[in-house]
Request: fold
Amino acid sequence: MSIPSDQLQIQSSQHTAADIASLYVVATPIGNLEDTSDRMRHTLASVSRIAAEDTRRTKQLLSHIGVNTPCFSLHEHNERQKIDFIVQCLERGESVALVSDAGTPLISDPGYPLVNQLRELGHSVIPIPGPCALIAALSVSGLPSDRFLFEGFLPSKSAARISYLQNLSKETATLIFYESSHRIKASIGDMMAVFGENRRVVIAREITKTFETVLNGNLSNLCEILEQDPNQAKGEFVVLVKGADKNVVELSDESRLLALKLIEYLPGKQAAKIVAELHGVKKNMVYQFLLDQNSE
Ligand code: SAM
Reply:
Protein backbone atom coordinates (compact mmCIF):
# COMPACT_ATOMS: atom_id res chain seq x y z
CA MET A 1 0.00 0.00 0.00
CA SER A 2 1.49 3.38 -0.88
CA ILE A 3 1.15 6.30 1.54
CA PRO A 4 -0.08 9.60 -0.02
CA SER A 5 2.86 12.00 -0.16
CA ASP A 6 1.14 14.59 2.10
CA GLN A 7 1.02 11.94 4.84
CA LEU A 8 4.66 10.92 4.57
CA GLN A 9 6.67 11.97 7.59
CA ILE A 10 10.33 12.46 6.97
CA GLN A 11 12.58 12.35 10.00
CA SER A 12 16.15 13.46 9.88
CA SER A 13 18.53 11.34 11.95
CA GLN A 14 20.64 14.44 12.56
CA HIS A 15 18.25 15.64 15.28
CA THR A 16 19.46 15.49 18.88
CA ALA A 17 17.46 15.89 22.10
CA ALA A 18 18.43 19.55 22.06
CA ASP A 19 16.79 20.16 18.62
CA ILE A 20 13.44 18.46 18.90
CA ALA A 21 11.68 16.50 21.62
CA SER A 22 11.93 12.83 20.66
CA LEU A 23 11.38 9.35 21.96
CA TYR A 24 14.75 7.56 21.97
CA VAL A 25 14.46 3.78 21.75
CA VAL A 26 17.63 2.73 23.52
CA ALA A 27 19.17 -0.77 23.47
CA THR A 28 20.93 -1.83 26.69
CA PRO A 29 23.30 -4.75 27.50
CA ILE A 30 21.98 -8.35 27.49
CA GLY A 31 24.32 -9.41 30.30
CA ASN A 32 27.70 -7.77 30.01
CA LEU A 33 27.65 -4.17 31.23
CA GLU A 34 30.70 -3.40 29.11
CA ASP A 35 28.38 -3.50 26.10
CA THR A 36 27.25 0.06 26.77
CA SER A 37 27.99 2.72 24.17
CA ASP A 38 28.89 6.39 24.52
CA ARG A 39 25.77 7.30 22.58
CA MET A 40 23.59 5.19 24.88
CA ARG A 41 25.11 6.86 27.96
CA HIS A 42 24.85 10.34 26.47
CA THR A 43 21.21 9.83 25.43
CA LEU A 44 20.12 8.43 28.81
CA ALA A 45 21.85 11.35 30.53
CA SER A 46 20.33 14.04 28.31
CA VAL A 47 16.62 13.05 28.14
CA SER A 48 14.25 14.40 30.78
CA ARG A 49 12.86 10.96 31.73
CA ILE A 50 13.38 7.27 31.08
CA ALA A 51 10.49 4.86 30.56
CA ALA A 52 11.78 1.55 31.93
CA GLU A 53 10.27 -1.94 31.94
CA ASP A 54 11.56 -2.50 35.50
CA THR A 55 12.79 0.72 37.13
CA ARG A 56 14.90 -1.15 39.71
CA ARG A 57 16.87 -2.98 37.02
CA THR A 58 17.32 0.16 34.97
CA LYS A 59 18.54 2.10 38.03
CA GLN A 60 21.30 -0.50 38.47
CA LEU A 61 22.42 0.12 34.89
CA LEU A 62 22.17 3.90 35.34
CA SER A 63 24.24 3.81 38.50
CA HIS A 64 26.87 1.71 36.67
CA ILE A 65 27.15 4.36 33.93
CA GLY A 66 26.87 7.34 36.31
CA VAL A 67 23.50 8.67 35.07
CA ASN A 68 20.71 9.84 37.40
CA THR A 69 17.85 10.72 35.05
CA PRO A 70 14.43 10.01 36.66
CA CYS A 71 12.73 6.76 35.59
CA PHE A 72 9.10 5.69 35.45
CA SER A 73 7.71 2.24 34.71
CA LEU A 74 6.34 1.21 31.34
CA HIS A 75 5.56 -2.49 31.01
CA GLU A 76 3.12 -4.60 29.06
CA HIS A 77 0.33 -4.08 31.64
CA ASN A 78 0.45 -0.26 31.83
CA GLU A 79 1.81 0.73 28.41
CA ARG A 80 -1.51 2.10 27.08
CA GLN A 81 -1.90 4.40 30.12
CA LYS A 82 1.67 5.67 29.84
CA ILE A 83 1.38 6.67 26.17
CA ASP A 84 -0.62 9.83 26.99
CA PHE A 85 1.94 10.84 29.59
CA ILE A 86 4.81 10.45 27.09
CA VAL A 87 2.90 12.41 24.44
CA GLN A 88 2.46 15.25 26.98
CA CYS A 89 6.21 15.20 27.74
CA LEU A 90 7.07 15.44 24.04
CA GLU A 91 4.53 18.23 23.52
CA ARG A 92 6.15 20.19 26.37
CA GLY A 93 9.46 19.81 24.52
CA GLU A 94 10.88 17.11 26.84
CA SER A 95 12.57 14.09 25.29
CA VAL A 96 12.01 10.61 26.72
CA ALA A 97 14.05 7.41 26.42
CA LEU A 98 12.52 3.94 26.29
CA VAL A 99 14.54 1.01 27.65
CA SER A 100 13.66 -2.60 28.48
CA ASP A 101 15.31 -4.87 31.03
CA ALA A 102 17.86 -6.05 28.49
CA GLY A 103 18.55 -5.69 24.79
CA THR A 104 16.50 -3.81 22.24
CA PRO A 105 13.05 -2.55 23.31
CA LEU A 106 10.09 -3.92 21.29
CA ILE A 107 11.96 -7.17 20.51
CA SER A 108 9.82 -9.56 22.65
CA ASP A 109 9.58 -6.53 24.96
CA PRO A 110 7.17 -3.60 25.49
CA GLY A 111 7.10 -0.53 23.26
CA TYR A 112 5.25 -1.39 20.05
CA PRO A 113 1.95 0.38 20.91
CA LEU A 114 3.92 3.45 22.05
CA VAL A 115 6.10 3.73 18.95
CA ASN A 116 3.15 3.04 16.65
CA GLN A 117 1.08 5.76 18.33
CA LEU A 118 3.91 8.33 18.30
CA ARG A 119 4.49 7.70 14.58
CA GLU A 120 0.80 8.21 13.90
CA LEU A 121 0.90 11.50 15.81
CA GLY A 122 3.97 12.61 13.85
CA HIS A 123 6.43 12.65 16.77
CA SER A 124 10.10 11.98 16.28
CA VAL A 125 11.27 8.48 17.28
CA ILE A 126 15.00 7.80 17.17
CA PRO A 127 16.81 4.46 17.60
CA ILE A 128 19.94 4.13 19.71
CA PRO A 129 20.98 0.67 18.46
CA GLY A 130 22.90 -1.87 20.50
CA PRO A 131 22.66 -5.41 21.89
CA CYS A 132 19.92 -7.78 20.78
CA ALA A 133 20.07 -11.47 21.73
CA LEU A 134 18.70 -12.83 18.46
CA ILE A 135 21.15 -10.86 16.30
CA ALA A 136 24.12 -11.72 18.55
CA ALA A 137 23.15 -15.43 18.40
CA LEU A 138 22.58 -15.42 14.64
CA SER A 139 25.93 -13.73 14.03
CA VAL A 140 27.83 -16.63 15.65
CA SER A 141 25.51 -19.54 14.78
CA GLY A 142 26.99 -20.56 11.44
CA LEU A 143 23.43 -20.90 10.09
CA PRO A 144 22.30 -19.04 6.95
CA SER A 145 21.84 -15.38 7.91
CA ASP A 146 20.57 -14.04 4.57
CA ARG A 147 16.96 -14.92 5.44
CA PHE A 148 15.68 -15.54 8.96
CA LEU A 149 12.33 -15.61 10.72
CA PHE A 150 12.24 -14.44 14.33
CA GLU A 151 9.37 -16.12 16.17
CA GLY A 152 9.99 -14.87 19.73
CA PHE A 153 8.68 -17.20 22.46
CA LEU A 154 6.80 -20.38 21.50
CA PRO A 155 3.47 -21.21 23.19
CA SER A 156 4.01 -22.58 26.70
CA LYS A 157 1.74 -25.66 26.37
CA SER A 158 3.11 -28.59 24.40
CA ALA A 159 0.02 -29.20 22.20
CA ALA A 160 -0.10 -25.54 21.11
CA ARG A 161 3.68 -25.50 20.64
CA ILE A 162 3.62 -28.59 18.41
CA SER A 163 0.88 -27.20 16.22
CA TYR A 164 2.74 -23.85 15.98
CA LEU A 165 5.93 -25.67 14.97
CA GLN A 166 4.04 -27.76 12.40
CA ASN A 167 3.06 -24.55 10.63
CA LEU A 168 6.76 -23.66 10.41
CA SER A 169 8.03 -27.05 9.27
CA LYS A 170 8.28 -26.08 5.58
CA GLU A 171 9.79 -22.64 6.20
CA THR A 172 13.14 -22.43 4.39
CA ALA A 173 14.51 -19.38 6.27
CA THR A 174 16.54 -19.87 9.48
CA LEU A 175 14.08 -19.98 12.40
CA ILE A 176 14.93 -18.09 15.60
CA PHE A 177 13.18 -18.53 18.95
CA TYR A 178 13.63 -17.15 22.47
CA GLU A 179 13.40 -19.70 25.25
CA SER A 180 13.63 -19.85 29.04
CA SER A 181 15.24 -22.45 31.32
CA HIS A 182 11.77 -23.78 32.31
CA ARG A 183 10.94 -24.91 28.80
CA ILE A 184 14.17 -25.37 26.87
CA LYS A 185 14.17 -29.19 27.13
CA ALA A 186 10.47 -29.54 26.29
CA SER A 187 10.73 -27.14 23.34
CA ILE A 188 13.78 -28.86 21.84
CA GLY A 189 11.97 -32.22 22.28
CA ASP A 190 8.92 -30.88 20.43
CA MET A 191 11.13 -29.43 17.68
CA MET A 192 12.69 -32.87 17.21
CA ALA A 193 9.22 -34.45 16.98
CA VAL A 194 8.12 -31.95 14.32
CA PHE A 195 11.29 -31.13 12.32
CA GLY A 196 12.95 -34.57 12.64
CA GLU A 197 16.08 -35.72 14.46
CA ASN A 198 18.48 -34.55 11.76
CA ARG A 199 17.49 -30.89 11.45
CA ARG A 200 20.47 -28.70 12.36
CA VAL A 201 20.07 -26.52 15.46
CA VAL A 202 22.16 -24.04 17.44
CA ILE A 203 21.43 -23.19 21.08
CA ALA A 204 23.06 -19.92 22.20
CA ARG A 205 22.97 -19.69 26.00
CA GLU A 206 23.85 -16.80 28.32
CA ILE A 207 25.34 -14.67 25.52
CA THR A 208 27.92 -12.13 26.80
CA LYS A 209 27.71 -13.63 30.33
CA THR A 210 30.08 -15.86 32.34
CA PHE A 211 28.54 -19.15 31.18
CA GLU A 212 28.13 -18.22 27.52
CA THR A 213 27.81 -21.45 25.49
CA VAL A 214 26.97 -22.10 21.85
CA LEU A 215 25.89 -25.69 21.16
CA ASN A 216 25.77 -26.75 17.54
CA GLY A 217 24.46 -30.07 16.22
CA ASN A 218 21.27 -31.75 15.13
CA LEU A 219 18.10 -31.86 17.22
CA SER A 220 18.80 -35.38 18.42
CA ASN A 221 22.39 -34.53 19.59
CA LEU A 222 21.32 -31.41 21.44
CA CYS A 223 18.33 -33.15 23.08
CA GLU A 224 20.78 -35.67 24.47
CA ILE A 225 23.19 -32.99 25.74
CA LEU A 226 20.36 -31.19 27.55
CA GLU A 227 19.26 -34.49 29.13
CA GLN A 228 22.74 -35.43 30.27
CA ASP A 229 24.04 -32.07 31.50
CA PRO A 230 21.52 -30.12 33.64
CA ASN A 231 23.81 -27.06 33.53
CA GLN A 232 23.12 -26.73 29.81
CA ALA A 233 19.45 -26.13 30.60
CA LYS A 234 20.18 -23.15 32.91
CA GLY A 235 20.00 -19.49 31.93
CA GLU A 236 18.61 -17.63 28.92
CA PHE A 237 18.51 -19.09 25.42
CA VAL A 238 18.23 -18.26 21.76
CA VAL A 239 17.38 -21.34 19.67
CA LEU A 240 18.16 -21.21 15.96
CA VAL A 241 16.93 -23.94 13.64
CA LYS A 242 18.10 -24.37 10.07
CA GLY A 243 15.27 -23.76 7.61
CA ALA A 244 13.70 -26.69 5.75
CA ASP A 245 15.60 -27.85 2.72
CA LYS A 246 14.08 -26.47 -0.48
CA ASN A 247 14.10 -29.97 -1.99
CA VAL A 248 12.24 -31.33 1.03
CA VAL A 249 9.60 -28.64 0.62
CA GLU A 250 9.15 -29.30 -3.08
CA LEU A 251 9.07 -33.12 -2.89
CA SER A 252 5.92 -34.80 -1.62
CA ASP A 253 6.01 -36.90 1.56
CA GLU A 254 5.59 -40.04 -0.61
CA SER A 255 8.57 -39.18 -2.84
CA ARG A 256 10.79 -38.48 0.16
CA LEU A 257 9.78 -41.67 1.93
CA LEU A 258 10.35 -43.77 -1.19
CA ALA A 259 13.77 -42.16 -1.77
CA LEU A 260 14.79 -42.81 1.85
CA LYS A 261 13.68 -46.46 1.59
CA LEU A 262 15.45 -47.06 -1.73
CA ILE A 263 18.71 -45.51 -0.53
CA GLU A 264 18.94 -48.34 2.03
CA TYR A 265 19.46 -50.78 -0.88
CA LEU A 266 20.67 -48.76 -3.88
CA PRO A 267 23.27 -46.10 -4.74
CA GLY A 268 21.86 -42.54 -4.54
CA LYS A 269 21.73 -41.93 -8.29
CA GLN A 270 19.76 -45.12 -8.94
CA ALA A 271 17.36 -44.42 -6.06
CA ALA A 272 16.79 -40.88 -7.39
CA LYS A 273 16.17 -42.21 -10.94
CA ILE A 274 13.49 -44.66 -9.76
CA VAL A 275 11.67 -42.03 -7.65
CA ALA A 276 11.83 -39.58 -10.57
CA GLU A 277 10.34 -42.14 -12.99
CA LEU A 278 7.60 -43.33 -10.64
CA HIS A 279 6.54 -39.92 -9.29
CA GLY A 280 7.25 -37.68 -12.28
CA VAL A 281 9.66 -35.41 -10.35
CA LYS A 282 13.14 -34.16 -11.29
CA LYS A 283 15.89 -36.74 -10.71
CA ASN A 284 18.35 -34.02 -9.56
CA MET A 285 15.96 -32.76 -6.93
CA VAL A 286 15.61 -36.25 -5.42
CA TYR A 287 19.37 -36.80 -5.59
CA GLN A 288 20.06 -33.45 -3.90
CA PHE A 289 17.51 -34.31 -1.21
CA LEU A 290 19.38 -37.58 -0.53
CA LEU A 291 22.74 -35.77 -0.40
CA ASP A 292 21.35 -33.22 2.05
CA GLN A 293 20.08 -35.99 4.35
CA ASN A 294 23.61 -37.31 4.63
CA SER A 295 25.22 -33.93 5.20
CA GLU A 296 22.89 -32.79 8.04
N1 SAM B 1 14.68 -7.36 23.98
C1 SAM B 1 15.57 -8.46 24.20
C2 SAM B 1 16.56 -8.55 23.02
O1 SAM B 1 16.78 -7.55 22.35
O2 SAM B 1 17.12 -9.62 22.81
C3 SAM B 1 14.83 -9.75 24.46
C4 SAM B 1 13.91 -9.70 25.63
S1 SAM B 1 13.04 -11.18 25.94
C5 SAM B 1 11.91 -10.68 27.19
C6 SAM B 1 14.17 -12.12 26.88
C7 SAM B 1 14.64 -13.37 26.14
O3 SAM B 1 15.69 -13.00 25.24
C8 SAM B 1 15.25 -14.42 27.04
O4 SAM B 1 14.25 -15.27 27.59
C9 SAM B 1 16.13 -15.17 26.08
O5 SAM B 1 15.39 -16.05 25.29
C10 SAM B 1 16.66 -14.02 25.20
N2 SAM B 1 17.89 -13.48 25.78
C11 SAM B 1 18.06 -12.30 26.40
N3 SAM B 1 19.33 -12.15 26.83
C12 SAM B 1 19.98 -13.29 26.47
C13 SAM B 1 21.31 -13.75 26.62
N4 SAM B 1 22.23 -13.01 27.25
N5 SAM B 1 21.63 -14.95 26.12
C14 SAM B 1 20.70 -15.71 25.48
N6 SAM B 1 19.44 -15.33 25.30
C15 SAM B 1 19.06 -14.13 25.80
Observations:
- The longest strand covers residues 174-180.
- The mean pLDDT is 93.
